[in-house]
């Protein structure tokens, strides 16, 4: 009887040992399962995907510059200064320009004196020619001298007019009513002709400028409506219309500038305010999911993703529409709530057990 109890106790210990060993192996397998980065698939929010940050700008902006070079001696404006057409904004030292104008005026007087002499000589020799006292060749010589003097006077007058204009160009005047948005010149700075000094935003229409990624620009059309809100005005909302789409992408950001004309503009909106533009007609009829490009597992010509169910991965074929900004638009094969692997997809195999990033062992 005693031996039977010992035998039963021995058999029980063996079963317990085997059970513990199996648990340890299962635990070890679970701990050895690779950790994967995942995301939960959700339907793309059309509203959020078509909202872009922008800035309020004037429709008409002028880059004002001096038409002559020189040293700036006067600046009558600051950022935000409101100016009227004809107001003096800046002036450069006109000493050299004045001297050039004086030289032109002196040349005009000299040419005028030469013309008077040539005219008097022509009159005298015309009388002598009519009296047959000189030959026709001599008379035509003085006539040519007169015509040359007349041409010299006209040339001198044109040069003097240029000098006079240059004197006026030493002053930079506002070409319209508006607000100073940028200043690139300071007193004492030597500038060249044509160098931009002032940005003047002209009074009139205000617009919102936004930048749209190249992957979305095909969905945007001129004339489509938009809804604009302003954070600084407690999200005041106004309507807008897309007026202009840049045909060329920014070489660095690879985005396209889009200008939206504001309708029913309240007086509280000012230049430079931050705006949020919601494009109302972008991709409103297409259901799709946006997933990272790194989630795609390509086999032959069939793109797939790894879906995680019960901590195991399973390949799922998907339909891809296009690629943009390191992401892909998936139009088939996925459902909202699916958990997919987004990194290391080429190191997995069908049915492999995995652990989610952040999951405890």
Describe the model.
It is a single chain. This protein is of the alpha+beta class and 361 residues long. The protein folds into four domains: 51-58 and 205-279, Elongation Factor Tu (Ef-tu), domain 3 (Beta Barrel); 61-93 and 170-200, RNA polymerase II/Efflux pump adaptor protein, barrel-sandwich hybrid domain (OB fold (Dihydrolipoamide Acetyltransferase, E2P), Beta Barrel), CATH 2.40.50; 95-169, Helix hairpin bin (Helix Hairpins), CATH 1.10.287; 287-356, conserved putative lor/sdh protein from methanococcus maripaludis s2 fold. It is 29% helix and 35% strand. A six-stranded antiparallel beta barrel has the order 3-12-15-14-13-16. The two termini are 46 Å apart. Mean pLDDT is 81; it is low at 18-29 and 43-48. Residues 66-201 form the Multidrug resistance protein MdtA-like barrel-sandwich hybrid domain.
């Amino acid at each position: 009887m005693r031996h039977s109890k010992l035998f039963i106790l021995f058999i029980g210990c063996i079963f317990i040992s085997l059970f513990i060993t199996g648990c340890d192996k299962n635990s070890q397998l679970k701990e050895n399962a690779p950790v994967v980065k995942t995301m939960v698939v959700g339907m793309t929010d059309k509203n959020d995907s078509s909202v872009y940050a922008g800035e309020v700008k004037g429709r008409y902006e002028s880059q004002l510059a001096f038409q002559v070079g020189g040293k700036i001696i006067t600046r009558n404006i600051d950022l935000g200064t409101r100016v009227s057409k004809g107001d003096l904004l800046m002036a450069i030292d006109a000493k050299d320009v004045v001297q050039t104008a004086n030289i032109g005026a002196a040349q005009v007087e000299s040419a005028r004196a030469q013309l008077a002499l040539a005219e008097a000589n022509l009159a005298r020799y015309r009388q002598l020619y009519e009296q047959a006292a000189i030959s026709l060749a001599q008379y035509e010589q003085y006539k040519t001298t007169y015509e040359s003097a007349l041409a010299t006077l006209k040339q001198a007058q044109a040069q003097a007019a240029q000098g006079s204009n240059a004197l006026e160009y030493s002053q930079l005047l506002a070409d319209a009513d508006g607000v100073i948005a940028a200043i690139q010149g300071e007193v004492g700075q030597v500038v060249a002709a044509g160098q931009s000094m002032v940005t003047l935003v002209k009074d009139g229409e205000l617009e919102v400028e936004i930048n749209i990624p190249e992957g979305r620009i095909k969905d945007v059309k001129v004339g489509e409506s938009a809804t604009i809100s302003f954070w600084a005005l407690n999200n005041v909302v106004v309507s807008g219309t897309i007026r202009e789409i840049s045909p060329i992408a920014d070489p660095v950001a690879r985005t396209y500038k889009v200008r939206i004309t504001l309708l029913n503009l309240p007086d509280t909106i000012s230049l430079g305010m931050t705006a949020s533009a919601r494009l109302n007609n972008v991709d409103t009829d297409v259901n799709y999911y946006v997933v990272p490009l790194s989630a795609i597992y390509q086999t032959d010509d069939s793109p797939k993703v790894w879906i995680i169910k019960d901590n195991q991965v399973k390949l799922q074929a998907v339909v891809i529409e296009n690629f943009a900004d390191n992401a892909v638009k998936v139009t088939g094969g996925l459902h909202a709530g699916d958990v997919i692997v987004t990194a290391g997809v080429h190191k997995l195999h069908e049915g492999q057990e995995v652990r989610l990033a952040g999951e405890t062992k």
